[in-house]
Amino acid sequence: MTDDLTDTFGLFYVAPLKLQFDVVNGRVLTIERRPKPSPQATRVHRLDVTDERTHWNRNRDRLYLDALGLLQVKAFIRDQYPRSSPKTRELKLLRMISGSMMFDEIHKGALTAIGLRRHEPDEIGMFANRARDAHPLEFRMLRQIIERWRA
Q1: Quick one: DSSP state of residue 110?
Q2: How many other β-carbons are positioned within 10 Å of the β-carbon of residue 120?
Q3: Which of 40, 58, 79, 119 has its Cα between 20 and 30 A from that of 33?
């Protein structure tokens, strides 16, 4: 649950990854590779995932990505490394968010929410529903794109 120690908007620079995230109202607007942060960016030391909206926690000094934010990082990696194999890109993602306790659940939930995985009635289905509830328009559009791509 977000509280007064979290921010759902701002510029956040993840120093070890040299990535800057522009977050507005719990949505990642842009991801940019930068050698140094913008002057107004908050330095963050780690990326993690959450089943809540994307936010920064001051106590833990982490930028928590929701399912949509995680998909955006996957797309960013694909853009940065277009010739890499899917396995290599997946390993890059795992290194970026290493040590996250909820990574598998949020990742599978995000893929289920856009239709790239079979719907499961278990915990993964719950994470997929939470992802769709947090960003209904975005997940509906992504699902339509996937369905057109498959047709």
Answers
A1: H
A2: 14
A3: 58
Distance, CA of 62 to CA of 131 (rounded, Å): 20
Q: Is 145 contained in some domain?
A: yes
- Contacts of 50 by beta carbon, 8 Å cutoff, 6+ apart: 64, 65, 66, 102, 106
Residues 17 and 96 sit within 8 Å (Cβ to Cβ) = yes
Cα of 44 vs its chain's centroid, Å? 15
pTM of the model: 0.90
User: Which range of residues forms the domain containing residue 59?
Assistant: 6-150
Domain membership of residue 1 (yes or no) is no
- What phi and psi values does residue 46 have, to the nearest 5 degrees? -160, 150
- The region, left, alpha or beta by phi > 0 then psi within -120 to 50, assigned to residue 25 is left
Torsion over CA of 49, 102, 82 and 43, rounded to 10 degrees?
Answer: 30
**Which tokens go with 43?**
């330095």
List the pLDDT tens digit at each of the 151 positions of the chain: 445 556 889 999 999 999 999 999 999 999 999 999 999 999 999 999 999 999 999 899 999 999 999 999 999 999 999 999 999 999 999 999 988 889 999 999 999 999 888 776 788 899 999 999 999 999 999 999 999 988 7
